Amino acid sequence: MNSFLGSLRPHRHGVDWMVIAYTLLSGLYPLLNPACFEVMKSRGALNAPLPHLLLHLAIAAAAFLVLPWLRRHGHWTTRLMSLVILPASFAFFYAELEFLGVVFRDFGDSFDPFLIDLEASIFGFQPSLEWSRVWPWPWLLELMEFAYFAYYFFSVIGLVLIWYAGKRTADQNWTMSENMIRDLLAVMLSCYVWYTFFPVWGPKFFDYLGMAGPVESEGLNGWIFTDIMRHIHANGALHGAAFPSSHVAGSMVSWWWGWKAAPRHRWWFTTLWVLLCLSIVYCRYHYVVDLVAGIAWGALIMWLTSRLMGSGMDVSAGDRT
Q: How many CB atoms lie within 10 A of CB 8?
């Protein structure tokens, strides 16, 4: 066993320790108030104190053993698997926020009134309400919903740009890919910590606050991507996961690494990212302060990972210009 663990040590990355730390803490935190599981709409067998803790211990053990084991093999398939497993975990950790956010807070006890007052003091109105009222154009709504939907593919786009849009060696591409996933994981998990202790519902739940309904309640409708996003939010959106915007912070990571890796593609990837940032306000998913906080938080986390875990390699010389 000692020899097996020793063989894994050189292949264990800082990102593994991030997963282990977050998994253990999120496994232990609900035990401080086990009644938090009772708020869940659909409670499964694992949504109880002991099963929840055991599951998190198993995930932490997998991050400690399986991820470096996959990298140790050195084959591109296992190395790729060690990369994609990490972003795939976001859905699991996001779903847990349904009860993590109410360990010590009542359901509906959010910081929205504070942010609403802040936006009113800055702008004199609510941008997330008034923008769509001033420009109530179905084609603009559809464009914005498309940009918002594109978020789910930003990490894929970033990886494709790293591998196919620059003249670099395979080792350089692997290094960039691993650094991008490292930054993405750090940003997303830290956003989940924000949502646990600083719940903000966002404008999409203005009807709950008695302020206004979603854009469709005022007669503004789009087409395909509008319907897709409404379906996603009706079936997967959680209360309290708005500040800072993980849509902005997470996509910023992929945009930044795509910017570094593929200078020729900066124009359209940047355009798409800017539209995504604007869409969160126009479509009434987030406040403007969520947007600003998402950019600031994403930049801060990437700076910290660069300082504490290595900035990767200088790829500028190997880029295709």
A: 17
Same structural domain, 95 and 17:
yes
Same-domain pairing of 103 and 127: no
Sign of CA pseudo-dihedral 318, 297, 23, 37: negative
Does 91 lie in the same domain as 46?
Answer: yes
Residues 215 and 316 in one domain: yes
Model pLDDT for residues 40-58, shown as the tens digit of each residue:
888 888 889 999 999 999 9
Nearest to 211 by CA among 124, 98, 125: 125
Contact present, 92 and 36 (Cβ < 8 Å):
no
- Residues 272, 125: one domain? yes
Enclosing domain of residue 154: 108-321
pLDDT band at 312 (very low <50, low <70, confident <90, very high): very low
pLDDT tens column, 150-170:
999 999 999 999 999 988 999
Please check whether residue 53 is in contact with residue 9, taking contact to mean a CB–CB distance below 8 angstroms.
no
Shared domain check, 129 and 118: yes
Full 3-state SS string of 23-88: HHHHHHHHHHCHHHHHHCCCCCCCCCHHHHHHHHHHHHHHHHHHHHHHHHHCCHHHHHHHHHHHHH
pTM to 2 decimals? 0.93
Mean pLDDT of the chain: 92
